[in-house]
Each structure stands twice: as structure tokens, then as C-alpha cells.
Amino acid sequence: MRILAFETSCDDTCVAIVDNGTRVLVNTRTHQNDAHTPHGGIVPEVAARLHADRWRGVLEEAMQEAKTTWSDIDAIAVTQGPGLGTSLLTGTTAASFLALLHDKPLIPVHHIWGHLLSPLLDRNIDKARFPALVLTVSGGHTNLVKLHALDRAEVLGKTRDDAAGEAFDKVARVLGLGYPGGPAISKMAEMGDKNAHNFPKSMLEKDSLDFSFSGVKAAVKRHTEQIETPITEKQKADICASFQRAVVETLTKKVKRALGQPTHANVRSLWLVGGVSANTALRRSLEELAESWGLDFACPAKMEYCTDNAAMIGGVAAIMVAKHGLAAFPSRALDARGRWVLPEGL
Ligand code: KG4
Ligand code: ZN
Questions:
Q1: How far is ligand 2, taken at its centre, from the CA of residue 83, in Å?
Q2: What is the largest CA-CA distance in the chain?
């Protein structure tokens, strides 16, 4: 089963070709960072135009690299949502056009399901132990999900305001570090003192597994604005390190809280996914937690499967096909779903 997958939910144009659900033949992507950096965030209209400009080139590159022709493709998968409506629409339109032109089944995939199952890429699915507790931390989402099985998810908690990655991006903007903020902050944090400041760690109500990052973001902003002389590199590094510590400790404590709840005593694995899972301090902290609880720990096998990518969309599509059969996915014109609550089942 060879699946061609598209992902254009935000600001990256991504195309992948995946065999049998986990074997990634090619995973291509063009960033739009340069176009959005001057604005300190993503401009939807600019993102959609760049997707429309670029998808054909990215597709051709992927087909060539994987030495694949249209007759080798069994189905096309595309992120239908959630995300930026106009960005999604360029992807669903391109995928629909190709599916109709080449008479291929078209599989609509939920973006978060893609992140949830991303640790399976390049790995042996049969070795995964369920239930798995999955922390999804990206620019648009922060979720704690219990995967009861490969195709069944239960949302335990989500952010009430900013996503974790969004907090990194906003703090980076305050410090003049550009977009996306996560990589820049974690790099600066290496040179700083993580105990220099005690930024707030919001744990919310006693049993809540929801998240909130607006408090820590606002505290960093307030602190930075109070510095009267031009901010030094050392001051910036200390702020980055302390901010990162606050986020890492909050996320780790939340996961620990979930593991301690009696209904989750059956959890056997802990997975960390999404763009912020590229953060080494967070990885280390959760890996230690998993070890102390006797759980399997997994992050996506490669950094390129952490941030938005099309391989994870192809992976989910293959599981959907295994469950429902190819006939369940006709070739058709597919709309985008900018807002789409995570379906419990695939
Ligand atoms: O998953 P992703 O590519 O996009 C969404 O689905 O939102 O995640 C992008 C986010 C950005 O907010 C970026 O700042 C963050 O991931 N990020 C990081 C790191 N690398 C990327 N955050 C913290 N540390 C990193 N090393
Ligand atoms: Zn994402």
C-alpha cells in the first residue's frame, strides 16, 4: 500500500510518500518562515498563496526522490483540518484535483491524529504498547490524549489559552528572537541560568489535566518590559532558560498528575509529539518520568516527524484504510475543515 500524502494546515507545504503505513520513502517540505518572520507570526493570506505556488514543485521533487509514478500510488491522503482554513483549502483542492485526475481514493486525515501516531513512523507498529499517554505540544495545540489503541483516542486535557509552542513563539517575539520562537529560545536557554527567575507554573484546579500558558507568557513580557537599560544577551539567555524551565516543569507535572489518577493506572507508554517535542529539555524530563513509572517512552523517530509533516498524515491514512478498506474513500472534491474536534475513533 503506497500512499501519497499532503499537509498544508499551517505554513509548511509538505508532501510525503509512505509504504505500508510506517515506511517513509520521502518526506519533503518547504518552510515559509522567511515570509512570515518580519510579521512575528503567520499571515494566513500569505501562507495560502505560497502553498498554491509551491505544492506542484514539492510534489514533483517527492515523486522523483521516491522513484514513484502515478501507477505506483494506491491512494492520496490529505490533512482536512483543523488549521488555517485557507491553507488547508490549498491542500484539499490540490489533493482532490489529483485524486479525480488519476482516479485514486482520497483519504481525509485529522491533523492531530497525524501527530498522535507520529512515533510509529519508521518503527514497528506491533511493538507499541497501549494504552499510551500522548502529550501533543505544537504551535497550535497542546493536548493530553490517552490512546486506548491504535485507532481510539480519549482527550484528557487541552490548553485553555495559548498552546505551548505559541507561548515559545510569543516570548521569542518579546525578546526579538524571530519566528518560530521555539528553536531560538531553546538555543539561547543553553547559555542561561534556568533558576534566574521563578516564572509562574499554572497547574489549574486540583485534578485538572488542562493547560494554561498565558500566565507565564505575560510574566515574561512584564519582566522584560521592566528592564530599563537595553537588554543584554545574558539577560535574554536567563529569561529563555527560566521560561523554558517553567514550561517543561508544568508539562511534566501535568503528565505525572495524569499518571497518578486511578483510571490511568493501566497506561503502558508515554509519547511526546508535535513541534515542541523537538525541545531537548522537555524530552529529557519526560523520558526520566517515563523511566521512573516503568513506561515505554517514544518521540518521533526523526526531528522532521515532530514538526508538521506529511509522512504522519500518510501513516494515519494507512491505518484508516486497514480498518475501513479502500472502497470507503472515493475519489472526490474534498472541502477543508478549519475547526474539527478530534474524533475519538479513526
Ligand atoms: O507541530 P508544529 O510544526 O506546528 C503546529 O502544528 O502548530 O509546531 C511548531 C511549533 C512552533 O511553535 C515552534 O516554536 C515550536 O513548535 N518548536 C519548538 C522547538 N522547535 C519547534 N519549541 C520549543 N523548543 C524547540 N526546540
Ligand atoms: Zn501540527
A1: 9
A2: 66
pLDDT band at 10 (very low <50, low <70, confident <90, very high): confident
Whether residue 40 has pLDDT greater than 70: no
Residue from 276, 284, 303, 312 whose mutation best tests the ligand 1 pocket (most atoms within 8 A of CB): 276
pTM (global) more than 0.85: yes
Cell of 150: 491504535
φ/ψ of residue 160, rounded to 5: -95, -10
Residue 6's CB: how many other CB atoms inside 10 A? 28
Instruction: Tell me how far the alpha carbon of residue 181 is from its chain's centroid.
Output: 15
Q: Copy the grid coordinates of residue 311.
A: 509522512
pLDDT-above-90 percentage for the chain: 90
Surface-to-core class of residue 230, CB atoms within 10 Å of its CB (0-12 exposed, 13-18 middle, 19+ buried): exposed
Asked whether the beta carbons of 9 and 111 are under 8 A apart, the reply is yes
**pLDDT one-digit tens code per residue, 190-218:** 999 999 999 999 999 999 999 999 999 99
Residue 2, CA atoms < 13 Å, CB-side half-sphere: 12
Q: What is the CA(62)–ligand 2 centre distance, in A?
A: 20
